[in-house]
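Task 17 of the worksheet. Students: predict the tertiary structure of the chain below and write it out as C-alpha cells. Keep your answer in the requested format; marks are given for formatting as well as content.
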Amino acid sequence: MKRILKPVTYIVAALYFLVDAAFMAVAKPISEWLARHVVLRRLRAWIRSLQPYPSLALFSVPVILLEPVKPVAAYLAATGQMLVSIVTLVIGELLKLVLVERLFSLTRDKLMKIPAFLWAYTKFQQAKAWIEATEAWRAIRAISKAARQYVTEMKKSAAVAFRQS
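Model answer:
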C-alpha cells in the first residue's frame, strides 16, 4: 500500500505547487503594483521594525488563514458548484500569494536571520534553479514566450483593424 500511495502523494504535491506557481505569475505583478501605488507607510514601517521571529509569525498568517481555500474549492467542485469553486480558488490563492509576496519583500532580511528559514529558502532556491535548468522547463518557457508574442501580435492586428473600420 505504501508503494502505491507514494507516487500518488508526489503527484498531488506537484499539482499543489503547480497551482501556486501558476497563480504566482499573476500575484507578483499585483504585489509590485501595490508596493508602488498603495501608501501604507505606517504599516510598512511597523512590519519592517519587527524582529526575525515575529516577522516569521506575521509571514505565516496569510498562509495559515488562506491555505484551506484549496480543499474548500475542491469540496465545492466535488459537490457540483464549479463556478463558486473556481472563484473561491482564484480569489483565495491570489490574496494569499499577494500578501505572502508583500510580507516576504518587507521581511526577507529578518527571515534570513532564522537558521531554519535560511536553510529552507536555500533548498527552495536550489530546487527552483534545478527545475529551471531542465529541458522541459526551457521548452515550456519557449512555448509560453511564443504564445505571449502571438497574443501581442493578435492585439496589434485587432487594434489596426478596429482603427481602419
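Marker's comment: The chain is about 90% helix and 0% strand. The first helix runs from residue 2 to 37.
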